[in-house]
Amino acid sequence: MDNKFKFIENPSEQISNIKDYLFRILYNWKWFVLTIALALAIAYYFNISTEKIYGLKTTIVVKEKSNPLFSSGTNIAFNWGGVSDKVESIRKALISRSHNEKVVRRLQFYVDYLKEGRFRNEDVYGKTPFVLKLQPNQFQLLNTLIKIQFIDNEKFTLTVDFNEENNYRLINYTNETTKPYTFENAKFSKTYLVNEYINLPFLKAQIEPKASSVSSLAGQFYYIKLNSINQITSLYQGVSAKGLAGTSLIELTLTGTNKNRIVDFLNKTVEVLAEDELEQKTNYARSTKEFIDAQFKNTSDSLKLIEDKIGKFKQDNLIYQLSAEGSEIFSQTTSLDKIQKSLIDRIEYFNILENYIKTHTSYTNIPAPAIINIEDGSISEMVGKLTELSIKKDKLKGEVTENHPSLIQVKKDVETTRTVLLENLTSLKEITRVTLENSKRRLSSYNYELNKLPNKEQKLLNYQRKYSLTESNYVFLMQKRYEAEIAIAASVSDISVLDTAKDTGQGAILPRVSFNYMIALLLGTILPLFVIIAKEILDTRIHTTDDIERISPIPILGVVGRNTAINNLAVFLKPKSTVAESFRALRSNIQFLFTRHVKGKSKTIITTSSVSGEGKTFLSINLATVFAMGGKKTILVGLDLRKPRIFDDFELSNEVGVVNYLIGEASEDEIIKKTKIPNLDVITSGPVPPNPSELLISEATEDLINSLKDKYDYIILDTPPIGLVSDAVELLKYADSTIYVIRQLYSQKGMLKMINEKYSKEEISNISFVLNDFKINYKYGYGYGYGYGYGYGYGKYAKGYHQIENKSFFKKIFNWKKNK
């Protein structure tokens, strides 16, 4: 026989392998149904039990606005110019703790309105028929459920259950102070009227009904819980304020369990922001107005005092007007007085600005002039540039490290602009001082002319100079105060709402019901698939004849089914069973293994296996039986000297056997024993010897087999497992054919490595595999096992030819459906 084995890659074989895996997967369809149903049930429970989360948003516009009726020339709210990064500043303000705390206080979100739900207490803010009106500057019970149960629309019962294990505290929301509270009774319950003042040690409030509530409240109950402001504020700092790229728009997004709370918070946070921004925007005008008001009062008092002095002087000195020369001197000196005052004020502001720049490192809040005008445009331009660079530097500090090139460059630009501005201020101050000195020299010349006038006229002129200067300042301040009042009244907020938050029936964003079901379906399919594939990959046992063909070139002689008889005499006890039929098929197939020179002669068949327990003894007994029942004179020889087995099934004694013959204690006739099966004799192993290997390789073994060949048609040798001991290998030289037994779901694939090597090296010939204890598993397809002497045992054509084995009710139903 040609023992050469070639692997041929066949596309149809690859397709067959894919079909095999599909069959194995489809066979486990119950696991898929179970896991998918379980996963969907979990997803369903998760969807109905998880608290629903909603998401709403509002969009605002951040844009510098001014009243078009309020000209820039009269605008007291002086602005140096440059960018203020207003969108980013507003975005930061919206997520700041202080701003959100102010919104929480305005909305009184520290009061929770709850209703008992299926899985938890649900937030029913905005859906209750009442509101809780807390008395200001009073201590209230913190973090404890207060039950409000309505008797009717006019009365309700207030109930609080206290627990001795808890430490209760009271909070004053005005100043956020807390103090401990010790209860007297474990349960407090009292009936109140709606709108009645609740004056308790732990609660001072009123229950005010909503005007929209007209239905009967009898039997309805709610819970109220008071929280700390810091605790609630931290929840709302999660508001998302996102500036839309390339625009002055900010999109506010907030998620939560109650859409009414989300809507109110988003709209209120924009309202509070607009108010704060407007207040900040008019702060300069307000502070300027306060300064002007103070100056205006002093100037008004001074003007009245000077006016009284002039009147008294004229009356006492009988002088009522200046001469023509005095009038000319008065006109010139008054003009110079105004110029000097303006120059002195300007120098004073330059000093303030210079001192600020020298003593500060951040220039985002450079003081603007209150009641003077800066005529030099370069100063305004440089201050605006310095402000812009300073804002840019502060922003970069929060984004990059100190060594980042962009931040280093901005710092250099700030320092350069600062140096140039200081130089310009120094130069401008010097020019202003020169102008002031020139004005003073001119005034001195007029004062010289003034001294030539009569004494009374000189005094009157000085009085009128003071009055004129004070009156001019009074008029100027009156104008500036008017401008400040207009600036305050006419200022509009730079915040406007583009799209308000509104509940338009938006669905919950969490849980994602469809997505969860999809994930459940996916996991329910993938998990068992992974388990099945992992099980198949990690499974090293032999399942089918295809497994054997993939790992070994040795041919398969046949397949033997599972034994259902009371012992190993399956063919004898159940001659019409499927197992008996499989052995008859083996008997037919084995004839093709014998070479021509043994035709018509006695034939020796060796049965072996890899390890114990694979059924070689069962195969030896029944193979010998089927030959004997076919009219062939057969003898079964037990050569597994270490674990004698065959004597028990034939109800024979094992006291005398092969061992006794090999050591010369018994003759051949003494060890041959008749059985109850016609034509079948047995030689048992005998007592277990200490040296089985030495006995089996002795000449006595060869003499015994040669002698038996003269008396029997078939000699069946039951040998030890070839994978455990070397005994069977030594006996293979006597075999005309060798049967290697593999047991389904028991034999490991790696066990065939040794026999494969011997076969490939042609150390063994005429060897074949028999798959034992085979049971058709439909996860491997419907074709496995057929064609190897086992297929006739199942199917509708088997009726009448084979003995029908008893099956359970469920097996009968299954087979009926299969054969339909």
Care to describe what's here?
The protein is 46% helix and 16% strand. The strands form 5 sheets. It has an 8-stranded mixed sheet with strand order 17-24-23-18-22-19-21-20, sandwiched between helices. The protein has a 6-stranded antiparallel sheet with strand order 3-2-13-6-7-10, with no helix packed on it. The chain has a 4-stranded antiparallel sheet with strand order 14-15-1-16, with helices on one face. A hairpin with a 4-residue loop joins strand 11 and strand 12 (204-209). It is elongated, with a radius of gyration of 55 Å. The two termini are 43 Å apart.
List its salient traits.
820 residues; alpha+beta; eight-stranded mixed sheet; six-stranded antiparallel sheet; 16% strand; elongated; disordered C terminus
How many DSSP H or I helices?
Answer: 24
Low-confidence stretches: 1-10, 69-84, 782-805, 807-820
Largest sheet: 8 strands, mixed
End-to-end Cα distance, whole Å, is 43 Å
Secondary-structure-based class equals alpha+beta
Question: What is the β-strand count?
Answer: 24
Shape annotation = elongated
Order of strands, widest sheet: 17-24-23-18-22-19-21-20
Strand content: 15-25%
- The mean pLDDT is 83
Q: Portion of residues in helices?
A: 40-55%
From the alpha-carbon coordinates, what is the Rg to the nearest angstrom?
Answer: 55 Å
Give a topology summary.
Blueprint: H1 11-27, H2 29-49, E1 54-62, H3 86-94, H4 97-107, E2 111-116, E3 121-123, E4 130-134, E5 139-141, E6 146-150, E7 155-161, E8 168-172, E9 177-181, E10 187-193, E11 198-199, E12 204-209, E13 221-226, H5 229-236, E14 240-243, E15 249-256, H6 259-281, H7 283-317, H8 324-359, H9 377-397, H10 405-450, H11 455-490, E16 495-499, H12 513-538, H13 545-551, E17 556-561, H14 570-573, H15 578-590, E18 603-609, H16 616-629, E19 634-638, H17 646-649, H18 658-662, H19 668-671, E20 673-674, E21 680-683, H20 692-696, H21 699-709, E22 714-718, H22 727-731, E23 737-743, H23 753-760, E24 767-774, H24 809-819
Helix pairs in contact: 2-12, 4-5, 4-6, 7-11, 8-10, 8-11, 9-10, 15-16
